[in-house]
Amino acid sequence: MSILVIAEHDNKTLNGATLNVVAAAQEIGGDVTVLVAGSGAQAVADAAAKVSGVSKVLLADSPAYANQLAENVAALVADLAKDYKYVLAPSTTTGKNILPRVAALLDVSMITDIIAVESANTFKRPIYAGNAIATVQSDENIIVGTVRGTAFDAVAADGGSASVEAVAEAKDANLSKFVSEEIVKSERPELTAARIVVSGGRGVGSGDNYHTVLDPLADKLGAAQGASRAAVDAGFVPNDMQVGQTGKIVAPDLYIAVGISGAIQHLAGMKDSKVIVAINKDEEAPINAVADYWLVGDLNTVVPELVSKL
Amino acid sequence: MKALVAVKRVVDANVKVRVKPDNSAVDLTNVKMSINPFCEIAVEEAVRLKEKGTVSEIVVVSIGPKEAQEQIRSAMALGADRGILVESSEDLGALEVAKILKGVVEQEQPQLILLGKQAIDDDSNQVGQMLAALLNAGQATFASEVKVDGDKVQVTREIDGGLQTVELALPAIITTDLRLNEPRYAALPNIMKARKKPLDVKAPADFGVNATTKLKTIKVEPPAERKAGVQVKSVDELVEKLKNEAKVI
Questions:
Q1: How many domains does one find in chain A?
Q2: Looking at residue A95, what is its pLDDT?
Q3: Residue A204 among known ligand-binding residues
Q4: Are residues A138 and B214 in contact, defined by beta-carbon separation less than 8 angstroms?
Q5: What pLDDT digit, counting tens, does each position of A70-102 carry?
Q6: Is the pLDDT of residue A45 over 90?
Q7: Which residues form the Electron transfer flavoprotein alpha/beta-subunit N-terminal domain (chain B) (predicted)?
Q8: Is any Cβ of chain B less than 8 angstroms from the Cβ of A154?
């Protein structure tokens, strides 16, 4: 069985989320081809060729694919997909933007956020903000799905020696145009891939206090920073830091929740973390029910003390 | 121009759902139902565009059981002009919903088609993109800002790592993110007025759509329980546990 994996990248580097999708593809079993659709993306294709378990890389290099516009990339993928049994992409904003369009062009149903492979056509996925897990069976000729990266251990980024083939045909659908992009620059690790995440909620009180209290802790641990929806809505931090059903899904080794009560919506984004620590002044906070270790106290004194003792 | 907004009836966002003992589905008996939060944001955006004079008529459509009329009335109370219910008791998949919506779009010929980015029950995040593909139209998903300019629309999208702005030719499909706007509350006089607004009832077959999906849910289970944690009394104890017991730092 042949599997087409859509690479996540920025035309320069291959995003690690792709490695988790290749891992899911290997669980299904079959020949894995990675598609790199971009502009000036030879380096990405070369990196993809080294990924363990990849047998072929397709490089579609054209200005039409420079910004991953769904209209152009989906048409390309749907065209290529006819030779494959599976089309998989990471559950990133890019994957979720493109893949349903591919599925509709192929006239097949799609599976979002695969968290487990049960058999060749049966998969598990979370529904209702992760409060239920559905097992779904697809009877489609081509199985199209996005893979939740945190549910599969990444394959090695090296060790492979796939061939790179150019895909000649490139078409601009002329339905959309890229205007601009505003990427938040950060020295810290990427939130969804970080080994340790430090998150703040409404309890941190203000944007200034968020940084005064939590920045030293994140620095000390080399951690990514996250936030609850309450902290984002209150304007403490930008929205790309939101962890939850409507924000990012994380599953780090260590998740430290500071001043977060633990609403259903937030738990959906972090409850698969290996170890959860809650620091909260409220002994009854729902977050304590999912925490491995919880400390009741004022975060303004507890967190600096923690920093000094690490 | 005309705007079409799709809304879905779902379990209220604050309800903690329970899985049925036979693992067939989530138990929805006597559970509070509401308009999906992302759909509400789509309605609000259409109403704001009407208040600016950009949109002249807002048609709201829902596909689902008879009771989904309540959600259409809610959207009308927020400012939608008329409603269409495509009544179906089947558990429709995203592709089937997109095909029905395509039929509605072809009938109504709207310039702007607004949907939520995902429904909080199935968490699929598919319908808007599928509809755009079926109509061969441009799509702007996860919108946090919408600016209509003549026969084009500029949309700022929330992407991993920041924001991206794209421009689409109309007609176009836009799916809303949480940050797009803050939906208003329906005032009582508007709720009363909404009762008198026109609401057509149709069936999937009216649009030539066969409602069976090739994606079957064979089991629904509660997620694995985490084992109970411990309360630590001091920062020293926390550091010691993280280093020696959990071994994560």
A1: 2
A2: 98
A3: no
A4: yes
A5: 999 999 999 999 999 999 999 999 999 999 999
A6: yes
A7: 23-211
A8: no
Mutate to test the interface with B, among A18, A115, A127, A144 (most CBs of B within 10 A): A127
Distance CA A60, CA A95 (A): 17
Residue B122 within any structural domain of the chain: yes
- The vertex-B43 CA angle with B41 and B47, nearest 5°, equals 115
Touching check for B32 and chain A: CB below 8 Å?
no
Structure tokens at B69: 């009329």
Across the interface, of B158, B166, B226, the residue whose CB is closest to A290 is B226
List CB contacts of B189: < 8 A, sequence separation 6 or more. Answer: none
Nearest to B214 among A101, A109, A296 (CB): A109
A11 and A157 together in one domain: yes
CB A43 within 8 A of CB A75: no
Q: Would you say residue A157 has pLDDT above 80?
A: yes
CA B193 to chain centroid, in Å, comes to 24
**What is this structure's pTM?**
0.95
Number of domains in chain B: 1
Range of the domain at A60: 2-166
Q: Residue A246 pLDDT more than 90? A: no
Same-domain status, A107 and A202 = no
Residues A55 and A108 in one domain: yes
Same domain, A132 and A49: yes
pLDDT tens, B5-37? 999 999 999 898 999 999 999 999 999 999 999
Q: Are residues A33 and A75 in the same domain?
A: yes
Measure CA of the first residue to CA of the last residue in chain A; give whole Å.
Answer: 50
Residues of B in contact with A177 (CB under 8 A): 166-168
Q: Is residue A186 part of a domain?
A: no
A282, part of any domain: yes
Distance (Å) of CA B193 to CA A79, A240, B61, B79, B81:
49, 39, 18, 10, 10
CATH number at residue A265: 3.40.50.1220
Pair (A11, A138) in one structural domain: yes
Are A135 and B218 in contact (CB < 8 Å)? Answer: yes
| Residue A184 pLDDT | 80
Does A102 share its domain with A235?
no
pLDDT for the residue numbered A58: 98
Domain extent, residue B172, equals 2-244
Among A127, A131, A248, select the one facing B122 at the smallest CB separation: A127
CB-CB under 8 Å, A306 with B239:
yes
Residue B249 belongs to a domain: no
The domain that contains A23 carries what CATH number? 3.40.50.620
Q: Is B218 on the interface with A (CB under 8 A)?
A: yes
DSSP state of A149: G
Of A97, A129, A184, the CB nearest to B120: A129
